[in-house]
Amino acid sequence: MSEPQLQRRSEKEIFFEMIEKATPQERADYLDMACGNDLLLRRRVEDLLAKHFQQDGFMQEPAVEGAGAATTFVPLAEGSGTIIDRYKLLEKLGEGGFGAVYVAEQKEPVRRRLALKIIKLGMDTQQVVARFEAERQALALMDHPNIAKVLDAGATETGRPYFVMELVRGVPITQYCDDNNLPAHKRVELFITVCQAIQHAHQKGIIHRDIKPSNILVTLHDGVPVPKVIDFGIAKATQGDLTDKTIYTQFQQFIGTPAYISPEQAEMSGLDVDTRSDIYSLGVLLYELLIGRTPLDARELLGSGLDEMRRTIREREPLRPSARLRMFPPEELTTTARRRSAEAPKLIKALRGDLDWIVMKCLEKDRTRRYDSANALADDLGRFLRDEPVVARPPSTLYLFKKLVRRNKRVAIAAGTVALALMLALAVATLAFLRERDARLKQQAAEEAKQAETVRADAIKEFMEKLLKNTAPELLLQGHQRPVRDLLKEADQFARALSNAPAAEFHVRGLMAMLYLDDNSSLLDAEACYQQVKRTNELLPRVPDDQLPAPRDVLRVGATRAALWSGRVDEALAELAALKDEFRRRSPPELRLVAWCLAVEGHWRVWKGEPAVAEAQLTEALRLVANDTADQHVLLLSYFVRCQLAQALTDRGAWAEAEKVAREGLSLPVKVTPDLAYLHYLMLVEITDALCSQTRFAEAESVLQKHKRELAAKDCPPRILLALEKEFAKVLARSGRASEALPILMSVATNALGTASDCADAACVAIGSGDLARYRQLCALGLARFAAGAEGINALALTDMLLAAPQDAVVTQVAGDLVKRVEQARDFSKEWGAGTREWLEFRQGRLAGAAALWPKACELPMPASPIIARISKSDYRRPLIAFRSALALAQLGRADEARRAYADGIKHHGLSPTPKKLRDLGGVYPRWYLAEAHRREAEQALKAKGIAVP
Questions:
Q1: Alpha helices, DSSP H only, in 205-320?
Q2: Is 0.85 topped by the overall pTM?
Q3: Topology of 83-166 in CATH?
Q4: Taking the CB of the first residue and of the last residue of the chain, which one, N or C, has fewer CB atoms within 10 A?
Q5: pLDDT surpasses 90 at 194
Q6: C-alpha distances in Å from residue 298, one per residue of 141, 262, 305, 361
Q7: How many other β-carbons are positioned within 10 Å of the β-carbon of residue 14?
């Protein structure tokens, strides 16, 4: 990388590159080259490094006990003549990222020369020791003529591990092939041997993860080239830990050589890396053996920065080897062909076809489309060498015929002569037959084209359904909102391709609309949902009834919901009124559909903050379906109406009535179907909310425990059971029993199905109740699992979590990135997070913004979005802002204002509940605990400045 390129990089990119350097001297050299004469840039990078390596930052405290312990060692300067156990070091062969390799002489029990590998000076941290021992254990498990054998292992007097293996004197496989001008088929034969060695490692449960030319050395045994696979230094066991010191890869740690690693290695998202990752690397190696270059240019990758490098590896599709070769400059093309003992046109022809297919199958971004094993790759290359059909290439009839002819040339010539005679004899008859068939084919052409379009549309529909119903929800569950938005943009393009298949397009766009605004989704993009629903309305007349996911009139009512939530209120209310009038005028009246209209409008008015109007509409909807046949559609409608009606009653303080409405509509758990499970959970939430509002916490706990037991016995979906577990913890936290709630909230947050909101809620309860250790663990979890892809409400939740206590510069910078995503979000988080940027600036040392917030607190507008208008009535924005301002004002020395702000916060925050004096902290209890954390911090600041605490 050139110096100008380095100087254009940001301090964060330079910082992440430097912490990967092994020694202080290497870091100092890199800093000089990266910053040049830019003293300001150098100072910022040095500040980041100082923060990173200081010992009192909470991010250096591991979330898992023992993960951060450092290995203490006494440096030892190895060199020629050094004795380690019964081995004498003769010369250094080389060194990698953490180990140095020496030629060593053993004198007993046999005299021989071997290779001894030991951790190099300054690199014996616990993590490096774990990787080193993993390599030692990996090699010890394997016994193959093409894998370097481990002969002995031990540790130096200072405790640094080493191992002894056979001495391999050879050159990288690419260099050997080029030096000896091996033709393409000889290179393939040599490569097959490498595949067999890697297959042996995979059978032993070992993934190499760093296959590249320098790790495959070729040596001569009796004049025969023998490749040896070495350096399992970052190998990964597929069947358990290699050693008891193996530790989890740190957040955003880049493992492997960029030009050779697979997309799943570059992802760094927690996706499990299996043996197919090595298949990708083998494909890169084969690509380089055939044309002398890797699919993705190594220099370009290293010069693009970490994020761009990862994106390139994951997304950029490489050219086929033959196509890449044709793009070479003439001089390089000639040199490449000469090193393969061929002329340029013949080399391109040799690669085009089977070898192209085999290489590109290895390089598939989707690992399920690669070869299943190294043996499968070797077998396909063997078929290529024997002129047999290869698995990687679609077996067309012409292709199979060509392969047959090549294997049986003499028989083919004889058969061709006979065939020619037969063809001449049949020519006249065939001509007559073809004329007759032409008419029939024209008649069938329209039907076949229509059938082909239907098959194509069904295939796209099935593919998109898997993505939108399985992949996208799983990504959202892990907090990856931005990748899902990209996926939905691509899905929209696929849907456009279905314009001639209205039923398929309708289905796909309906799934997209649900993802944008579904209760379980974290996107909450009402405008995007409306655009999809608008298109489905246009398609509705063209889709037959039997291909619709719900009755046509129900879909018409549902369309008004998207218009309401997107802000097109007048238009949607007018449409609902027209639909109600139409359904009442039918003979007989469609009362169920009228109830749907009332339910849609009542739901919107509940969240808009109009409980009285909503209560009247939802009560009428419930009356209309009271005597209807209790089929599944009516049951779902009844659940939905009762949930919203209970919310409206709770909003006006009629808690006993809300409890009664919800209990009357609650089915027995044994009758809950998968379609009803989520609504059943929401009904239980309404019951417990009403009970908590009446401080009947014990009854709320009993209801939740009883239903969870019975639903678990009926194989209820795990996500519903986890949600009920959190609801139970919520009851404990709302009643002030944080010490009992926190272990349950921690269990939910660390569950594989836990969300960013679960993590942030638990962290707020932890910091608010004074449990700093658990707060730090949850912050580390939130950064590792959710920060990279969070936006909108998830980004706001993580920001509140991270800024609940003072942090170091790196974490504060991450919080700053999250604040930007909140401000750019399409959901309601920007309105709900008023004052977040000023609080971030306070944590960064700029106090003025936070100090100015409290005087304006009374003037802050209530959120306009209907999604949070109801929540805002019990929101803790006022005490949060007051305590934050008191903290800032105290540090600025403005004592009177600080005291008044603190007193205002106490007024709206209230006292903590006690066993003798129960109090419900409300449904948004995490905000109360967050305000409590700020109150304690403000109180300490007032005392530190000598200001009397009100």
A1: 263-267, 276-291, 298-302, 306-315
A2: no
A3: Phosphorylase Kinase; domain 1 (3.30.200)
A4: N
A5: yes
A6: 32, 14, 12, 21
A7: 23
